[in-house]
Amino acid sequence: MAKRKEGVGKGKLDQVLARIQGSARLKALWAASNITAINRMHINDHGPMHVRIVMRLGLKLLRLLVAAGVQPGVVDHGLPPEDAEVVVALAAALHDVGHAIHREEHELLSLVLAGPLIEELIAGLYEEPARTVIMGETLHAIYSHRRDALPLTVEAGIIKVADALDMEKGRARIPFRVGEPTIHSVSALAIEKVELRPGKEKPVLIFVRMSNSAGIFQLDNLLKEKLNRSGLKDYIEVAAEIKGEEKKIIERYSID
Question: Which domains does the chain have, with CATH numbers?
Fold first, then answer.
């Protein structure tokens, strides 16, 4: 899981991360989610690997935005900006657990499962009303990664974008291996690296290194839509490049 940099004292985020890592219930939900996604639907994993990626990117995105003066949603409730990291970490860990029930409407199903887990993961760390605020803000972020939902907080927008940024090479290998190459899997295999950096024109730059121009589909059709509906478009710029000769991804394609 994502960790704080060395030298930073053990705070609420560190305790929440440790509890996430040690939660048997959460690990069981991740495993069940992967059975739905990988074994039954032959799509990319939605378990611990995806969670680690979304959490790492989400926390980095949050820190870049806060460093540039962007205020997270928890501040509206009188909580310190640091508590936004707890919301992002919790939402990253829980946003896809609804797959344990079904892929369809999994965002809503995740809300059903997430409430008791949030209570467990933040127990003893917050007094009321802060405890209820963290709960509500986390559930909002989970719900808002739904394709047609508009996030109303920075934290929720971050989860929406970070979820879309899980696109590096290999993340499409499961559908590719089972003989179902699509523009989604081929374009994902073209993405070599996704990096978050301070931007020049905007607070954050999403830099994408590609091995094949097919990767443009991931950016123009998937990331662009998520970014436009995240509420963070004004703070994030996207750049992509292909270095060297384009790599061949697929030898032959046929329609049965």
Answer: 12-242 (1.10.3210)
In this structure, are residues 88 and 62 in contact, taking their beta carbons and an 8 Å threshold? yes
Distance of CA 36 to the CA centre of its chain: 19
Is the pLDDT at 167 greater than 70, yes or no? yes
Tokens of 117: 């887990």
pTM score, whole prediction: 0.89
Asked if the model's pLDDT at residue 138 lies above 70, the reply is yes
DSSP string, 100-126: GT-STTHHHHHHHHHHHHHHHHHTTT-
Residues 6+ apart with CB under 8 A from 122: 12, 16, 86, 90, 131, 134, 135
Parallel/antiparallel/unpaired status of strands 236-242 and 191-198: unpaired
Residues 182, 173 contacting (CB under 8 angstroms)? no
